[in-house]
Amino acid sequence: MRDFSVVGRATLFGVAVFGVAIFVAFGMANAGDGPAGASAPSQPKTAKERPPQRYQFRQQHSPEGIGKFYLGREIAHVMGYQGIAWLERPERESEEHLEQLVDSLKLTPGLAVADIGAGSGVISLKLAKKIGPTGTVLAVDIQEEMLSVLAKRLKQLNVTNVKPVHGTVKSPNLQPASVDLALMVDVYHEFNYPYEMLREIAKALKPGGRVVFVEYRKEDPSVPIKLLHKMTEAQVKREAGQPEFNLRWVETIEILPWQHVIVFERRP
Predict the structure, then answer these.
(1) CA 233, 229, 209: angle at the middle one, nearest 5?
(2) Which residue, 121, 114, 162, 171, is CA-closest to 142?
(3) What is the pLDDT of residues 1-55, one digit of tens each?
(4) Is residue 234 part of a domain?
(5) Is 221 among the domain residues?
(6) Phi-psi region for residue 144, left (φ > 0), alpha (ψ -120 to 50) or beta?
(7) Domain at 201, CATH number
(8) Taking the model in full, what pTM does it have?
(9) Under DSSP, is residue 182 helix (H, G, I), strand (E, B) or coil?
(10) How far is CA 99 from CA 20, 147, 246, 258, in A?
(11) Domain count, the chain
(12) Do 91 and 123 form a contact (C-beta atoms < 8 A)?
């Protein structure tokens, strides 16, 4: 048999030398981390904190919504241009009191008013009468089909103080500090990017300008509208009251049969 004792001793010697080298290298690498003779505890590296996500997405959600949540609220599906008949239904005035709504805004001739989510222009035309030929209604919508219907209607009626504006899901495409009042009737709850849209709407307001949310009352179960197409007053205040928007709540007008009229003002 071969004698493995010499080989074994050599191997053990090599391992010992290697271990000493590792120990010395480790000590040198940590030199200066603490007082001599003291072992410095390792400090875990903390990753840079990520800001909280503005939107959350859930697979389990209401069929009325898109599965995207903002400040605890699921965003509702947008009503497409195929729903024009709903906007123009004959009974809408008796159900929603649109004339009373427009009167409550206390508009005066010469104002610049943005109708955000104008659709086929039912409310834009009512606003146009209030502000007169010296005023301007900026009828904003993201659907080209809606704006096309509106443009034809304006031409037929010879209305010259309503200007269609093609917005995006993140911006109404309005000039900064150009609007006295921005009105949203039953549309804010459908915004795919409510934070970005409201930020841009707030920028478009003149100092002292108003933004008005008209939303079906979620507090009232008797209002015959799908749940995600309603909002509570508290939820609107929570979303619009974020300090970066520079808006302050002014009043909530409760004169309509089904809807809140919640008014904010841009601080100077």
Answers:
(1) 50
(2) 171
(3) 333 333 343 333 343 333 433 333 334 334 444 444 444 455 554 556 666 799 9
(4) yes
(5) yes
(6) alpha
(7) 3.40.50.150
(8) 0.81
(9) strand
(10) 90, 22, 30, 14
(11) 1
(12) no
